[in-house]
Design goal:
alpha+beta; 2 domains; 3-stranded mixed β-sheet; rod-shaped
Length: 126
């Protein structure tokens, strides 16, 4: 794991980005991203010296700490329904899309093509 505190410390003593990347065993792009995010939030080595690595990570990259939850299909229900005559996966998929569109959060939706169904991630309408 990249030590964001170490990147900020080395930057504060005047070491260039390439040497910081080599010293921290990360890419130069990572160093640039961390320094830019720290600058945007007004963070410097003096302000983060007492923070834990986890706190600093959450301050610099807040979106990565909260992963979206996807509503998965009820596979037991699908299995029961498939046993009935005339029920296809396409019908069950359309039913799933209709019910999940009304619920909050993200759901799987389909984009039919000429030969198969491609699954894509979409946000549910608000």
């Amino acid at each position: 794991m990249t030590s964001y505190k170490e990147i900020l410390r080395l930057h504060s003593i005047g070491i260039n980005n390439s040497r910081i990347a080599f010293g921290c065993s990360c890419s130069r792009t990572t160093v640039i991203n961390v320094l830019q995010r720290a600058k945007d939030q007004g963070l410097s080595w003096q302000t983060v010296a007492e923070m834990s690595d986890k706190e600093l990570s959450q301050r610099l990259f807040p979106s990565e700490s909260a992963k979206p939850a996807y509503k998965m299909p009820d596979y037991e229900y699908i299995h029961r329904e498939r046993a009935k005559s005339g029920v296809t996966l396409t019908l069950l998929w359309l039913e799933y899309c209709a019910t999940s569109a009304a619920s909050p959060g993200k759901s799987l939706t389909s984009r039919p093509s000429s030969t198969n169904i491609t699954l894509t991630m979409c946000k549910a309408p608000r």
